[in-house]
Design a protein that fits this description.
This protein has about 150 residues and is an alpha+beta fold. The chain has two domains: about 90 residues, Arc Repressor Mutant, subunit A, CATH 1.10.10.10; about 55 residues, Ferric-uptake regulator, C-terminal dimerisarion domain (Dna Ligase, domain 1). Helix content is about 45%, strand content about 20%. It has six helices and five strands, in the order ααααββββαβα. The chain starts with a helix and ends with a helix.
């Protein structure tokens, strides 16, 4: 697949769905930033840009983007589901601050090797994994006096 737009169009075609102007706008906005986002943040960014796309359309589009392998859920934080776009990006894991919501991305080959070894030991075929660590970032830890 050349790019994320072609990949999404192909997935929609397989499902018998159209690549609507609203879906295009949502997709482009998701890929315009490398930051994690939640549905409400995405909705507000679109509204600020003058786009008249409903929350319902965003809620219906996100599962399509996930099914297409373009977006994935990351950690749940402060009663919100966070997402990130993943097409063309290496796998990584996350730490999230429970106070300020800061997300720290990291990759450690030792974790990946351990997962592979565990799957092999138990004859398990992995398809996906997410590692998320919740706690307090350096700044919030200082404020709390840890």
């Amino acid at each position: 697949m050349k790019n994320y737009i072609d990949k999404f169009k192909a997935q929609l075609t397989l499902k018998g769905l159209r690549f609507t102007p609203e879906r295009r706008v949502i997709l482009k906005e998701v890929y315009s930033s490398h930051k994690h986002f939640d549905t409400e943040t995405l909705y507000e960014k679109l509204r600020q840009k003058g786009e008249n796309i409903s929350r319902a359309t965003i809620y219906r589009t996100l599962p399509l983007l996930i099914d297409s392998g373009l977006v994935k859920e990351t950690l749940h934080s402060k009663d919100k589901i966070n997402y990130e776009h993943i097409f063309g990006h290496e796998h990584h894991d996350h730490m999230i601050c429970m106070k300020c919501g800061r997300v720290i991305e990291f990759k450690d080959d030792r974790i990946e090797k351990l997962q592979d070894a565990l799957c092999k030991k138990y004859s398990f075929q992995p398809r996906e994994h997410r590692l998320g660590i919740k706690g307090y970032c350096r700044q919030c830890k200082k404020q709390k006096g840890f």
